Known about the structure:
Elements: H1 2-18, H2 21-37, H3 48-72, H4 83-86, H5 93-108, H6 111-122, H7 127-133, H8 138-155
Helix pairs in contact: 1-2, 1-3, 2-3, 6-8, 7-8
Amino acid sequence: MLYRRHGRYLLAIASRLLSSRSEGEDVVQDTFVVGFEQLATLRDPAAVRSWLARIAVSLVRRRLRRGRFFRLLGLEQELDATLSGLASPSLRPDDRAELALIDQVLRRMPADLRIAWMLRRVEGLPLPDVASACSCSLATVKRRIAAADATMSLHVSIQEASL
Length: 163
C-alpha cells in the first residue's frame, strides 16, 4: 500500500534529481527497503510521505557524490532523465538548448545545492518540505537554493516565471 501510494512521487523526484530513470528506480527500491527496516522510527504516520522523501533524497545525495567521483575518474554515466530529455517534444529549440545548459550546470553543482534547487525550482515543493527532505533547517535550505540560483544566473538566463 505504501509503495502504491508514494512510489510514483518518489520515482519522479529521484529520476529528475539523478537525471536517470533507472537510477531513480533503484533509489525508490532502496528507499522502501530502508523505510521498511526503519518503520518503527516513524513518529508521525501522517508524515510518511515526507519521511520517505527524506530517505530518498539521502540516497540520491550519496549517488550524486559517487557520480561526481566517477566523473573525476573519467567514468561518465549515461543520462536519460535530464530536464532537456524530459521536455515536451513541442518545446522550442531555444528553450530545449536552455534546459540542456541547466542540465550541465546542475551536474557540476555540489549535491546539496543541486538537490535543494531541483526540489524547489523543478518539483515545486514548498520550502518546509524541501528542508524536511534535505534534513536541514529552513534557513540552510534557503541558503542552498540562493547559492544554486546564483550559480545558475551566472550561466543561464532563467526566467523565474517559466520555472
